Amino acid sequence: MFTPVSIFMGLRYLLSRRSFVAFISAVAIGGLALSVAVLIVVLSVINGFERELAQRVFSILPHSVLYQRSPGALAADDLSRAQATTGVVGAAAFVQGAALAANGDDVAGILLTGIEPADYDRVSRLSSFLQTSGDSNAASLAAGSFSVWLGARVAQKLNLEIGDRVVIILPDASVTPVGVFPRQKRFTVSALLASNSELDSRGAYIHMRDAQKLFRLPAGVHGIHLATDDLFAAEAIGEDVLAELGFDRFLQRSWMRSHGNLYRAIALQRSTMFVLLSLLVGLAAFNLVSTLVMVVNERRSDISVLRSMGSNGMTVVGVFLVLGLAIGALGIGLGVLAGVLLALLLESGYAALTGALGLDLMSQYFVNYLPVEIRPGDLIEVSLVAFGLCLLSAVYPAWSASRLQPSSVLRYE
Predict the structure, then answer these.
(1) Which residues are within 8 A (CB) of 395 and not within 5 positions of it... i.e. 6 or more apart?
(2) pLDDT digits (tens, 9 = 90+) for 371-409
(3) For range 179-204, the mean pLDDT
(4) Which tens digit of pLDDT belongs to each residue from 123-152?
(5) For a tag on the chain, would you pick the N or C end, based on fewer CB atoms within 10 A?
(6) Inter-helix orientation angle 19-52/313-357, to 10°
(7) Residues 366-369: contacts with CB within 8 Å, 24+ apart?
């Protein structure tokens, strides 16, 4: 089928200078390139969201949380037993509760978490996302210093900077001689959490001892944060830790319950968008049918002469399959190149555009910028799917060309 004659003639038709043939070939190539580029850009953006959720958000958030049924002091070996459980790479105690952060008349809701900074590095990369003033001592959370690591967007909302004072208010009330007042304490902002994620708009971290005083838990904690070696096995690993420490003392909540729906939605959206945009690629690929049919009509006399010289139908089929695949390969190649270049420019270009226009379109998402990740596997998958569709599109015009009768065409030549 793919004889030297077929390859030569197919490529010759591709490079033909006949205006009409050249125009419809260019349209087919352009449509295919555009659809492939769109598919690559969309998949790259979805990949970016998936990467940021897995690597940025879950590098700070615990993979699984064990809550004590009755907040209090942990047993002496609870952390070591949790740490020794298969699949657990880190365990750290915490105190946590909802609170308000206030600066003058500005107020923002926060999730206040008390941690031991040295121990918490085992379960979170929180410290790697901190913005500090350059003084490591000032940025540390020392017991009794009443310092706070505050989310960058919370600080922005409250007009706070590193070194400023912020009032943290708990919903629990304190009874004083002059009346009932919410419990509150003034803290110093020693660092800002700048992870470019949802945590920046609600996170606040203080030392464990300060949190115990604020929440009135002398030597008590609310539970244990766990980091696992397999993000998707966090639920099962947490169950193993529960079995070790006692189901009567703890209950578990893994990331699958807090963010699982979002992760599954991203995965489902990726599959859905690939299928839907593959239909767009298919539409562009099947545009080859009309293109090749027109080329066949343009080249009826050439086909007839070729058949009269002794070539069989398979040689003619090969000519138009080569032409269809050449158009497809050129369109796919241009589409992959355009898609990769556009995806590479999209992240910085989006940030520049929204900054210039003063827009914040990503404020409702778990990251506040547009992430992009180009995966070679996606490029190969998209190229193979598009190439397969181009091959299918070329079959019918090639077969119809092979069915032409030389006598019926050449009798009027």
Answers:
(1) 321
(2) 888 889 889 988 998 888 888 888 877 777 766 666 555
(3) 84
(4) 988 888 888 876 655 567 888 888 999 999
(5) C
(6) 50
(7) 366/52, 366/53, 366/57, 366/197, 366/198, 366/259, 366/262, 367/49, 367/52, 367/53, 367/56, 367/57, 367/196, 367/197, 367/198, 368/153, 368/196, 368/197, 368/200, 369/196
Helix-helix angle 260-298:300-308, to 10 degrees = 70
Q: Give just the sign of the alpha carbon dihedral 337, 338, 342, 345.
A: positive
Sequence-ordered list of residues with C-beta below 8 angstroms from that of 70, at least 6 positions apart, any chain: none
Domain chopping of the chain, boundaries:
4-55+262-410, 62-256
CB 203 within 8 A of CB 217: no
Q: In angstroms, rounded to a whole number, what is the distance separating the alpha carbons of residues 235 and 277?
A: 34
Q: Is 376 exposed, middle or buried (0-12, 13-18, 19+ CB in 10 A)?
A: exposed
Q: Which among 204, 259, 203, 214 has a CA at the least distance from the CA of 64? A: 259
Interatomic CA distance for residues 362 and 228, integer angstroms? 29
Alpha-carbon distance of 347 to 355, in angstroms, equals 12
- Sign of CA pseudo-dihedral 92, 144, 205, 108: positive
Please, what's the largest Cα pairwise distance for the chain? Answer: 115
**Residue 266 near residue 367, CB atoms below 8 Å:** no
- Give the integer Cα–Cα distance in Å for 50 and 263: 7
